Every structure is written in structure tokens, then in C-alpha cells.
Amino acid sequence: MQARRIDEIKSLLIESKDRVIELHNAIIGNVLSDPQLSLLNSTSAAAIWRLWAFITAVCLWIEECVYAQFVAEVEAIAANAIPNTATWLRSMLYRFQYGHDLLFDDYRPYYAIDDAAARIVTQAAVVETTWGIVLVKVAKNGVSGLQPLTTLEIQAVEVYVDDIKPAGTLVQVISLNPDKLKVMADIYYDPLINLSTLKTNIEKAIKGYLRNLPFDGEFMLTALEDAIQKVVGVKTLRLNYVGAQVGALPYAQITNGTAPAKPTYIPTSGYIEIDPAFPINTTIVYYPVL
């Protein structure tokens, strides 16, 4: 136990004294206001009934202290409990340390050394699927953004999850390249705005929207439109086609013209970026509003 400083002890004593006096005065007030206790009218500080009032006040104060300590201990136990929820598992993924042995103390996982550099998982999501499998999505920071873990790193995360997951739970760990997005649109703009600058700002707006999506967050067509509309010089726009691709699979249409097939999309990998094969400057057509 860490030794308390003198000023901390003095502060505690003053606080305790003030609380005992407060309780004592409350008891005295109740006694004096009760007609049935009118015979207890001595003003002497040494009067028996006043001494009993003081003893009772001290006992009440001790009870308050014990109860407060009990509440603190229960809250600490609850805070450190293993709830085995999706939120708890996600938080544990951020504590994973690559290359370190996982230890247990009273069934609680921990590492002998706190190595921040070994915590390679920077984004994680835990999805409870309808077919009874808990899907764990993970990614790490790369030079130009998020990137998938290596095969060995994924295997290490799988072992880690198997060690901490509830018994009987089916868990699948995935770490994929980002989903690809293709955006084809017509943008009508103010001709007083420099077109080159406008194109640059629109590309920044689209990529910024994708970059700021929460991991495994929902991509929304309306939010994409809002991001483009906020660019200075944009009068209006029409999304002709928005599609997403996972790995080498065919593109999945999110919208086509004015008839959206599906207005939202959750990336399979957890994150999404513009497909380099379809850069924004080749898929968006600009029309000046004269």
C-alpha cells in the first residue's frame, strides 16, 4: 500500500470531523424537536444523552465509510470482470501483443511485459452473425493507411482469440485487403471555380469520407453525396453508378442512376478505398452550370 502524504491525512481527518459533526447536530436537532424527549434538555456537552448522540454519529460515520469502501470494491470487481461480450472481445484484440506469450492469473489473460510496439492490431470489429459464428475483423496501420495482417500475424491472433474466447464459441478471424469502391457521377459546378482545383477538392472530399468511416462502419450513399455537395463550387450532382468489390469477386452494385439497389454498404474487410483501377478523375464527368 502506498503511504499517504501528511496533507492527504489532514484532509481526511477534517472531512471526517465535519461529517461526524454534521451527523451529531442532526441527531441533537431531532432529539430537541421531539416532544416525547423533552426531558433531555441538558445543555452540558458531557450530558449522557449528548455523549450517546456523539457515539451514534461516529458509528454512522464508520458505517458510511465501510459501505463506501464496499461499493468501491464491488465496482472494481465488476470493472475487471470478464463479461465475454462482443465489446469485451474487441477491446481485448487491441491488447494483443505479437510475439509475446499470453499468461493467465486467476483465469485473467495478461502479458508479462507491456509492449506497445507489439500491439499490431489498430482496428478491430466483432460481428455476431446469424449463422452462429462470431466474425472477427482486424487490420493494422500501414504506410498509406490500413492494411491486412500477414499470414503469421493472423495465425497468432487466432491462437490468442482461441485462448480468451468463451468455451464452445465458433470464431473466425479475417484480415483482408480493403474493399474497392468505384464511383461514376456527373457533377454540375459553378464555372467561376477553377476546374482543376474543384477536381482536387472533390477527390479529397470523397477519400476523406471513406477514411473517416468507423472500422466496419456503414458506407452511405447520402453521406457520400453530402460530402461532395459541401465542396465549394458544386451546384448539384448525379450518382450514375456506385459499386463495391471484395477481393477478386465481381463488383456489387450499390446504386445505378436514380434507382438505388442498396443505399448502404458494410465493407467485408472493415474498410474501403477508391479502386486504383477506377480513379476518381476518370469516372466523374464535370458540367459547368451556365
What are the key terms here?
3 domains, 5-stranded mixed β-sheet, 13 strands, 38% helix
Summarize the structure.
The protein has 290 residues and is an alpha/beta fold. Helix content is 38%, strand content 23%. The chain is built from seven helices and 13 strands.
Number of domains: 3
Strand content: 15-25%
Rg calc? 32 Å
Biggest sheet statistics: 5 strands, mixed
Helix and strand pattern: HHHEEEEEHEEHEHEEEEHE
Unreliable runs = none
Number of strands: 13
How widely separated are the two ends? 77 Å
Total helices: the number is 7
Structural class: alpha/beta
Describe the secondary-structure layout.
Blueprint: H1 6-32, H2 48-79, H3 86-93, E1 102-105, E2 108-111, E3 123-128, E4 134-141, E5 146-147, H4 151-164, E6 171-174, E7 179-189, H5 195-211, E8 219-220, H6 221-229, E9 234-245, E10 252-256, E11 264-265, E12 272-274, H7 280-283, E13 284-288
Parallel strand pairs: 4-6, 7-12, 7-13
Antiparallel strand pairs: 1-2, 3-4, 4-5, 7-9, 8-11, 9-10
Helix pairs in contact: 1-2, 5-6
